[in-house]
Amino acid sequence: MKPSTVLIVDDSRVSRMLTRQFIQVRHADWVVEEAANGDEAIAKAKGLQPDLVLLDVNMPGMNGVDAAAALRTMLPKAHISLLTANIQAATRQRAEQIGVGFMEKPITAERIAQLIAPLEA
Amino acid sequence: MVRLTELEHDALVELFNIGVGQAASAMSEIVNETVTMSVPAISFLTRASAAKLLASRSTGNGRLCGISQHYSGAFETEAILMFPEEKSQEIVRLMVGEAMPLAELSAMEQEAMSEIGNILLNSCVGSLANLLGHELHGSLPDYHVGYGEEILAQAGSGETAVLMLHIEFVIERQQIAGDVAFIMDMTALHDLKQHVANFLDRSIGGAQP
Amino acid sequence: MKSSVESLPLLQGVIDCIDVGTLVLDANERVVLWNRWMDLHSGVLGAETLERSFFDLFPEQRGKRLEAAIGQALRSNLPSLLSQTLNRWPLPLYANKAAAEKGERMQQQITVTPLNLGNNERYCLIQVSDVTAAVQRENLLREQAVALRSQTLLDDLTGVANRRHFDMAIDRETRRARRMGTPLSLMMLDIDYFKAYNDHYGHQQGDACLEAVASALSTMQQRPADLFARYGGEEFAVILPDTPADAAVMMANAMCRKVRDLRIPHQASRTDERIVTISIGVAGSDNAGEVYELINAADRALYQAKACGRNRVHSI
Questions:
Q1: What is the pTM assigned to this prediction?
Q2: Residues of A with CB under 8 A from a CB of B
Q3: In the prediction, which pLDDT does C71 show?
Q4: Per residue in A58-115, pLDDT tens?
Q5: pLDDT of amino acid A3
Q6: How far apart are CA A28 and CA C172, in angstroms?
Q7: Which of A57, B174, B191, C226 is most buried, judging by how many CB atoms fall within 10 Å of its CB?
Q8: CB B127 to CB A106 under 8 A?
Q9: B46 φ/ψ angles, rounded to the nearest 5 degrees
Q10: Is residue B165 in some structural domain?
Q11: What is the rounded distance in angstroms from the CA atom of residue B21 to the CA atom of residue C165?
């Protein structure tokens, strides 16, 4: 199976490290890149063309939802998921509207496993 | 004052953001409105500096509404949620959704504010406790009004450190800024740093540069 | 707790006497204690509740704040407060049979507290207080405050806006006009030879005359932001935001006509027809920047109207 490419977008370095760890522990050969904000994510995604993008909702500057919307248009085939501790209906609906997934924080091994499952199939 | 490494600082900010995010979720259920909360910054201060900071930021008469809860167990702290007095009236009005004239905060509104403090503080501390793997014991909320200095003096007058979280609260497109102060003695502060370091060790295999 | 009497019967007695709904859930959310207050006010007897899941008894609490609070007590060891302001009538509890029949739930304040007994046994204590009386008091106070507030903006005699209302409004409108660059007009008017009217007909009739004139004129303001106010004894003022002076003059003339059409007899008047008439001074904000300048200008205009024979409009 061809190794996948993942882009992790979160302003918290610890969050990014944790997510990377949970992924690489299962797939050491996958390419995992990081971005600290929406603009950086969009810039990196152009070159990287990731198979999976995980975005924190709550970021300074461009928030995760707007970034996800932009990436959805840029990467029609990628799996894109929003991560947030604030799981209220409005954000869930917005995610559906844009056509991206939605996952609750805090980040755990089980939750990451769920998010990467579509790439493992 | 104890210094945290950049990674330890980041871990705390993220933990508190998760906590207030969950609190916002709970509050949006109550009011059926979109509620978002975030912690853009945290800082460690002496009690005197914390009081000065609160005073310097005030745009109204400087009086604050403070809801405090005491926690003990893995570490001991007095946690206080503070909003400017006139802003806390606004928050309750937004949460309750009635058109109320701007009046003295009545007993029932104080109670509503106490619940908001209870939700927020438990969420922050709960998030911290869960992720650090230790349980805490907490008290029910107490309500105070006064200047920053008075409210921070609730926890006694010993040598203390204050961990201040700046909070951005958005409801119905109104943005309101508040603060949470965790008042602790030097032992508790060291305990906290140790717990965070342990968490980083466990999760990402040791602190990295 | 210290007690010199045999504990268990005493405690049972106390729990069933206290005026607070008291229930305890075990770690699996099953009811293990249910006091008499709960019997009385929920209509559900303790015997039916014991060992049953709280959410079987109250399924509508799933997904609500109370469920989250119970979870937080049992799993995180933290207590919660449910204020009656943010959580209206969460549980089906009633003050008495009559209220139960009408379906009127009581206002409740609820606290949920973790209870740790030895042996790692954790329970959750739920206390419910009836705060209906406090809520009613608070609502009454709020209504009174609102009523009081509206009273102090109205003139007792004529029911139009009072001087305090005018002062606040002119301040606000002057600033707004300056900020938006819109025209603001002010009228000052009073009843001609009013002192003579009082002397001739008596003060009670004088009051009636004021009421009649105020009543006739105050209904002429078209827009919500226009304000007709009693400025002093027999003097009235009209604030017209977004109105240039010439439009204000037209309205002032109409007002003069309306008072003339009332045809209130005024034997002591020195105008031709011996009826109650008014004089009006009009000033526009092109002439003035500050509030006092606008008021002075309108006053000067009123003075001119008087000097020129009364029963007319003059504008600066």
A1: 0.71
A2: 12-15, 17-18, 21, 58, 60, 84-90, 105-106
A3: 94
A4: 998 898 999 999 999 999 999 999 999 998 888 899 999 999 999 999 998 999 999 9
A5: 87
A6: 68
A7: A57
A8: yes
A9: -80, 165
A10: yes
A11: 45
Superfamily the domain C152-315 falls into: Reverse transcriptase/Diguanylate cyclase domain (3.30.70.270)
* Number of domains within chain B: 1
Instruction: Give the pLDDT confidence of B33-55 residue by residue, as tens digits.
Output: 889 999 999 999 998 899 999 98
- Segments forming the whole domain that contains residue B50: 6-204
> Could you tell me whether strands A31-35 and A5-9 are parallel, antiparallel, or unpaired per DSSP bridges?
parallel
| pLDDT on residue A120 | 85
Å between A59 CA and nearest CA of chain B: 9
Find out if CATH 3.30.450.20 is the number for domain C7-138: yes
**Which among C72, C83, C145 has the least Cβ separation from residue B111?**
C83
Q: Three-state secondary structure along C267-311?
A: CCCCCCCCECCEEEEEEECCCCCCHHHHHHHHHHHHHHHHHCCCC
So what's the pLDDT on residue A8? 97
**Which residues does residue A54 pair with via DSSP β-bridges, in sequence order?**
A8, A81
For chain B positions 27-46, those within 8 Å of chain A (CB to CB) are: 28-29, 34-38, 40
Could you report the predicted ipTM of this complex, rounded to two decimals? 0.89
Residue B24 lies in a domain: yes
Using a CB–CB cutoff of 8 Å, tell me whether B92 touches chain C.
yes
Instruction: Indicate whether B37 belongs to any domain.
Output: yes
In chain C, domain spans: 7-138, 152-315
pLDDT band per the 50, 70, 90 thresholds, residue B97:
low
Q: Which two tokens stand for residue B75?
A: 């570490």
Residue B1 in domain: no
CATH of the domain at B131: 3.40.1550.10
Q: Is the pLDDT of residue A15 over 70?
A: yes
Of B25, B34, B38, the CB nearest to A87: B25
Q: Which residue reads 């030097």 in tokens? A: B186
Q: Which of B109, B111, B130, B132 to mutate to test the interface with C (most CBs of C within 10 A)?
A: B111
Kindly list the catalytic residues of C. 234
C136 interface with B at CB cutoff 8 Å: no
Domains of chain A and CATH, by start: 5-120 (3.40.50.2300)
